[in-house]
Design brief:
heterodimer; A: about 650 residues; alpha/beta; Beta-Lactamase; 21 helices; 19 strands; B: about 170 residues; Rossmann fold; 6-stranded mixed beta sheet; 5 helices; 6 strands; about 30% helix; about 25% strand; disordered C terminus; binds guanosine-5'-triphosphate; binds magnesium ion
Chain lengths: ~650, ~170
Amino acid sequence: MSDSRLGVADAAGSAADRAALEQVRGLLLGEDRARLIALQQRLEDPERPVAELAGALSDAVRLRAEDERFIAALQRPVDQCIQHSVERNPQGLADALFPVMGPAIRRAISEALKGIVQSINQAVEHSISVKGLRWRIEAWRSGTSFAEVVLKNTLLYRVDAAYLIHNDTGLLIEHALAETQTTLKDEDAMSAMLTAIQDFIQDSFTGANEGLESVEIGGRSLWVLRGPKATLACVITGMPPRSLREQLADTLRDLHLSYRKQFEAFDGDKSPFAGVEPLLQDCLTLAYRESSEDKARVSWLPWLLVGLLLVSGLGWLGWTQYLWDQRLDAARSRLEQAPGLVVVNWRPSGGRRVLLLADPLAESPAVVMADAEVAAWLDLQTRPYLSADAPILLQRLRQQLAPPATVTLNLSGAVLHVDGQAPEAWIQGLSALQVLPLGVDRMDLSALNREATDLLARVQAAIDPPTGVELTLDAAVLSLTGVASWDWINGLAESVAELPGLVGCDNQRLVVAELRQAEAIVQDLNGMLFAFGESNKLLPDAGPRLDQAAAQISELLALQQTVPFGLEIDVIGFSDQTGTERWRAWLRERRAEQVIRQLGERGVPTAILHPLPGPGFEPSDDLAAVAEQAQLRVQLQPVPLPPCWVR
Amino acid sequence: MESRKICILGDFAVGKTSLVQRFVNNQFSDKYLTTLGVKVDTKQVALDDGRALKLAIWDVAGTDTPTQLFLRYTRGAAGYLLVADRTRPETLEACVRLRDAVAGTLRPLPYVFLGNKSDLVDQCRLQQGIAQARLPDALDWLETSVLTGEHVELAFRRLAAGMLSKPPSQV
Ligand SMILES: Nc1nc2c(ncn2[C@@H]2O[C@H](COP(=O)(O)OP(=O)(O)OP(=O)(O)O)[C@@H](O)[C@H]2O)c(=O)[nH]1
Ligand SMILES: [Mg+2]
């Protein structure tokens, strides 16, 4: 307005006035003038407010972020914008949302799968029980799926208590209890500890955004649902379905929506949360479900027991039947293998009757079966017949021919071999048979010998005496005289033992041939002298004597190998009467030793040679006792004859 | 009734658990069982003005350096007792570190400083003056003894009163 007035004045005034006016203006307004001009320009510039608004817009929006009216005002344009954007370029939005939607969808799918797996588990569990059968019928009648019926009937659970816990402080904001429940000893401490545990877990498993989800406490579970500001903890009895978790999560979400600010400001004053309790109560009621079929749950047990009994009873029956059949089979095969028995008909139509052909000589079927119980149970019927089985045939031949004990009968095919010794009369009877016994085509008597009639001849044949031994029989007692070898005498007892008819044997008058030979040598050796010169030096002619003595002693030793006679050889040293007695004794000793050494050098084992100093002082009538010599004295221990058998 | 979360902070074996046990159950044991993680007890205190307050007392495992988990446990507390062992002066430095960490990550919380084990007179090497100089912003500095029970109750009441007169939201 003032400007326009100035304008009029300008139009009327001169240029000088204008200049003066400008000057006055400059004086009056000073620096403000430039600012006024700048302000005027800014008002006139259409771009300017927009630029300024742009600078302030973000701050302005932040200032009003909490204002409901502002939010309402923005809602429509934002909706429109998004709609428009999606219509124009859906891919852009999809790309932007993908990182958010991906995990959310994955999570939703895994939750759904968990639920399905649980239902399947229960369905499988119940599909084989009696109850399951009933539910199947119910499902079929009502036209719903079996799984649904199972779920309806089995998901018995109850949320006993619900606790709302503030995350930051761990303080209990509110809780609700089912009527049957008593309060915990200290819910506040419980909530705080639960929070501390959550803190601990989140700290330990860095990166994992999820904490503890559930805790099993005896038969109960504690489900923990953690929201951004508060945690919902529920104590649940029974088997809750997975879907319950979603319902509880919904409640927690609702609580967050309605009480977000209160949660943030919470410091222990519970008054702003007056409306929370009913919501928690809902958690209890919404999950409460009781089934009248609860008792039916145990009814399968008796059925199972009866079934088990039945099955085990049948099993036992089957088992015993099997064992019995095994025994019957064993008995049958024993009958079939037994000589002289033929199974004609075994238990026709499964009965007990058994028809047998039995040779009169065969063993009794009951004995053959070796199972008295089976034998008694079976109804055995036998018909007689004549068996050609070799053992039975032989038995019959023995009965018919009555061979003496010295005769053996053998069958090869239909040929009867008669071996051994038999009395003349029996052999004649055999040869005179007009008809061969049944089952025999030919008889072979080539190995059959006539039995010697004379006992002496039989003894002679049995013992085969060497020439020079004479046998005499006196009342069936055999006496032997003469010279025979040691071995033969020793074998006598055995060869004589089996002779029928002989009652005794006397061998004491027999002379052992080897012993007689040995005695001859001993006689030769005994008293053999070896002459010494002075001292203990043998005279030269002793050499050949020593050789002879050594040879003869060796012969004796060889004989001793056969006949165990004891051989003792003493070597006695002598001396004449000269010198002191000590000297003489020493000399006698040395001489005996000298001979022994000489013999030892000639191969005689010195162990059998015993040095024996000759007699000392006493004058002896024995000439040898005073001569310069040594003498051999040989003895044989007598050997008793082995006793021959005496009946 | 209102409730508050408070924490007991301090170095190892300064007597935090003992303090809580004395306060909650009026018991003392000379056995030392170190606290693992955290143990929470609750107790109601009647204030001088007739109001009652339920305290959720978080007995946090002793530490001289504030860990991530330590700070998690202190989150949401309305105040805390900061405990030093008067026979071990170095436990005061731990207190200063813990106080700074709490104030730095959360916000300055009201706290009461306790010089504990005052009954061990001969061994006391930590004077209250030093503590006052190092921790000037404490609500109070108390010489306590869990053994005799001296100032234990007082410590909790002082903290409770301090928390209510200066609500953390206004800081
Ligand atoms: N003499 C005396 N001993 C005390 C006092 N307070 C605590 N103690 C003893 O100090 C030891 C440690 O006590 P705690 O209460 O377990 O210590 P803490 O601070 O909880 O230890 P952490 O849990 O490991 O951090 C125990 O043996 C207590 O008996 C006190 O006032 N006087
Ligand atoms: Mg402790």
